[in-house]
Every structure is written in C-alpha cells, then in structure tokens.
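CORE FACILITY INTAKE
Project code: CF-77B
Contact: R.S. (postdoc)
Sample description: multi-component assembly, two entities in total
Requested service: structural model of the whole complex
Turnaround: standard
Below are the sequence entries exactly as provided by the requester. Do not edit them.
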Amino acid sequence: MPRAFTPKVVTANALLEGYVIYLTDAGDWTRDLSRALLITDEAEAQLRLLDAERQPDVAVGVYLADVTPGRDGRPEPTHFREEFRRTGPSNYFHGKQATR
Amino acid sequence: MYRYTDFDAAFLAERNQQFRAQVERRIAGHLTEEEFKPLRLMNGVYLQLHAYMLRVAIPYGTLSGRQMDRLADIAERWDKGYGHFTTRQNIQFNWPKLRDIPDMLDALAEVEMHAIQTSGNTIRNVTADHFAGAAADEIADPRPVAELIRQWSTDHPEFQFLPRKFKIAVTGSPNDRAVTRAHDIGLRMVRDAAGAPGFEVIVGGGLGRTPMIGKVVRGFLPEADLLPYLEAVVSVWNLLGRRDNKFKSRIKITVHEHGIDDIRARVEERFAQLRPAFSGVDQEMLAGLRAHFAPPAFREAPTVAYDAAYKGDPLFRSWADTNLAAHRAPGYAIVSISLKKQGATPGDASADQMRVMAELAREYGHDELRISHEQNVILPHVHKSDLPAVHAALREAGLHTANLGLISDIIACPGMDYCALATARSIPIAQQIATRFDELKLEHDIGHLQIKISGCINACGHHHVGHIGILGLDRAGVENYQITLGGDATETAALGERAGPGFSAEEIVPAIERLIDGYLALREGPQETFLQTYRRIGLSPFKRYLYPEARANAA
C-alpha cells in the first residue's frame, strides 16, 4: 500500500540571497512559512513542484517539505530541520527570526 | 610568509574575473543551477540552510595581520560581523549574498587569499601543524612543503575531477598536531639514519561515515621525491576510486578494498614512471619557498616582566599555564588564543576580535597568526616579556579564556544551525557543556580532555578522534546524540568506541556530566588524564555512569 500523502509546502532557497523561501497560492514566493500554500493533494503537490522548478532565476534547490496545519490552518513544520529553516540559527539572533 | 609572485596574482585575478562572469551569467539566467553549482563550489561557495556560505582557505593555517584585518573587513562589509574558523584551517562566512561574492573574492585577492579548491572533488586546502616554525619539538618547518603542495595541487589539470575530495596534512614534529593519520594523505617530516630529510607517507586515513586510521604506504620518502610520489598516489586513486558510489569513493575505501600492499605496489609503479618527469624544478622552487618562511629575528631580552606577572597575577598565571606552549627560541612562547569562551560558538571571532588579534600579531608577534584545526588562533612567536601586555589586550577583547586543551575547548562543526548536510545541531551542545563545567568550576581539576562534536556522520567536528566524541543524528525526527570514547587525534591516533544508545538534546549534557563524575572517581590521580584512564580500564566502567538506569534495571 502506498503511504498516505501528508501535507506539504514547496520550499527552496532564494537565488540572490540564499534565504529560505516558500511558494504561495499565487505562485510567487514568500519568506514567511505561515504565508505559504499548504498543499493537501498529492497531484497538486507535484504540479506546484514543477511550477516552482520552472523558476530557476528565483529559487534554488526546490523540494516538498512536510508540514502540518496549525490551529489557524496555516502550515507548521513537522521536523526540526524545517523549524530551523523558518527561524534561523540558535546561536545568534540572525536570519529570519531577526527580520520578523 | 609566502608572498605571491606576479604569476600567482595574475592567475588569481583571472580566476576571480571568470567567477564574476559566471555569477553574472547565472543571475541573468544563462546558466542553470546544475551548470553553475560545480563552478561555485570550485570557488568555495556553498548554499547552506539559511544562506550562501563562502569558505576561504587559510593555507597551512598561516595569516599575517593584514590578512586577518581583511577578514574582519569582509565580515563587516558583506557578512554579519563575524567569521567561523573551521577544523580544516579555513574561515567561513555564513551570510554572503551571491552578487557580493565576486567582490569578496577580489578583496581577498588583494591580500593574497582565495577560496579556490575549498570545495569540490579536488585536492583541498593543505593543512599543517599550527605551531609550525615555532614549536620546540619540531624537526623542520612543514610550511614550505605545504606551500609547494598548494602550488602543485592548485588547478592541477589531472586532479580537478577526482572521485571525491582529497585532503593532505603535513607535520614537521613527532608530536602530531595536524591529525595526519585522519587525512587522505598525511605527511610526517622525518630523517633517515644518515640524517637526510624526508617523509613518512600515510595514506587512507579519514573520518566520516567509514572512519579509518591512515596506513604507512612509504616509511621513508626522500624529500626530493615528494611531488612525483604524491602525484603517483593521487593518480592511482583517480583511476581506481569508486566513482559509482559516493560513500565508497574516498581513498580510505580504495586502500581498504585493495589492501595497502596492492596500493603500495601500484603507487611505486606509477612513481617510477613519473619520477623522471620531475627534473628538479620543484626542488628549486622548494628552496626558494624556504626563504619565504625564514624564522623572524628573535630577540634576546630578559623575561623579568613575565616572571613578575606570573608570580603576582593569578589570572595571568592561570592563562599562562593553560594557553602557552614551548617555543624553540629562548625567551619566547607560543600563545594560543581561545575562541572557546564558555557559552560562545566554538571557532567564531567577531570583526573587532580579529582586528585585536591582528594588531597584537603586528605589535608583539612578528606579524604572524595561525589558525588551528582546533578552531583557535595562535600567535606563534611572542617574547615572554610581552606576554603581560598581550594578555591584558586579550582580556579587553574577551579573548583571554584560559581553557586550551580543557573540557570547554570543544571542537564543534556548524551543525544544523547552518549546514545543509547536518542531521542535528552541534553548537548549542558545545555551548551548554562548556557553560555547565564552567559553573561547576571543575575544568582545571578534570585536566586535559578533548570533546569533539559533529552534527552528522561526515564528521567535520572530528568526533571519532575526540577523547569524548559526540555525534548528532536524526532519530525518527528528534535530535539524538551518540557518544564515543577513547578517540585520539595525535601520533597515537585511535578511533573512539561507541558507548551505547544515544541521548536526546536534553539528556546529553547530564550524560557528559555523569561521564566526567565517573572519570574523576575512576582515575588513579589528577595526573592521569581521561584518555589514560580510558586506556587503562576500557569502556565498560564508564558505561555504569553513562547508563545508570540500565544498571538499576539489571539489578
């Protein structure tokens, strides 16, 4: 039996700055995970991934990351790696946490 | 120090110009990421977790004050005001923007520095004993040889697409501070029975997924044979190396699969072919390089000021006892500056701190600095009479931590705070261990102890050769830390033994504390180091302390 599909976001690093970015519903990119498109359908995930891969001038290393809907339905990381990616390093107040 | 020739400067300028054009073409969309990635890696540019990272080589760990100042300028202008010194004598900038990197490389070139071959499947930055040219126990300064290897390996046409990366380390001292037994090739400068200089050549060492202690492939290699022999080793591996499987591609696996005798025979055959092609130009170059590394004019002066401070100032004395090493010149000392202040990130220095160290090098240290694989900075030549002033300046900059070789002098890779390959964080674990033992005021009582932490099996944090090694893994979506005991990075190199099940991020610091309690109870006296105790009694007595609940359950 194939494994059940779990919710995803499309994520990558921005070409120019290297920052972590997420695909939005409108097909552009945000640095804020809570504004990312939460994808619950596997076919849509594959299509959105293809769309994102067609933007090599913006996004590098595109992939689907596991998320879970938070209380308000916005995506929340399920793995600590994605938690660090949306936050920044733990030894300095640098990265995303500093720009919020 | 080595000064670039016109050829070096022109080569680097051209290379930087090429990379600038490659970046422009990538941004303009004329290069895909697939095409661009190998180009950026050849120039030390990684894409990490939160940003790009630029890895700059500090060949054999040697820097001038001017170069250190420039690293500070780069950190301030294009990064976030600090740099991270690594276990391979590199510095990493964690936040550069792609458009700025060509300017950063030009700024480096102005002070004769580069990021070439700090990544990719090439011969990487050549590392050496960080006490080179200064240590009392040294046979010969390894840096002229290391510079010769750097020049030979840089842009070597045969070795730009190797099966995998290739790392060479050189030591000129019998006390190995360059971890030569954990490199693809380790070179130990030795003399034969007649006193002629040469090398013991060690091959196939390495840490990572499959850790191996290197094996001696040639017990004595005459000095003049070095480059053809190195070329023979690398070319034998270049053909045999497992390009089909990334995890089996390093020379340590080739040596393991074929056996050292087979590799030796192949290398000797290849060496016999290559040797005649080396007409002696390399030896002329080596002789020229030696002049670049001539020792500074050491002065003869009384050490009264040192003696007085040592007697009268307990803080100074504590620092001197811990952070100084024996120098070959009378009246001199080697100063290790700890980048391991308890609670700070191991190996990080702010731009201000870099400038302080550069200024101290200029004023008191014959304008020389070194970076150690232990992620500290060294002033190799300081007259003892200047040490009180050096210590006072270090104190003002927060660089006076007296912990060299102690439990808080931890090697830690960037881990999952920065690295895209990491499976867990390293830095917070190092910070917590150092802070905890500082609170306990046990550090000096524990004595010489090396903790080395890696955030994944690639082992940049050298955990296999730590007296206590910590490996961070991802166990079912949770950070988990495995402990190894009894590793050794020196001439008596050994791989640590896995102690048992791993610990969570919350459990690891208490586990280390229990382990140290165990050591203090088990040692024969304060003179017996952790490693000596471990070698005397083995792993199992320590397990009782690490896993007390297992003992309770068994009872």
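Facility notes:
- Chain B touches chain A through 29 residues (CB under 8 Å).
- The two ends of chain B are 63 Å apart (CA to CA).
Invoice: internal transfer
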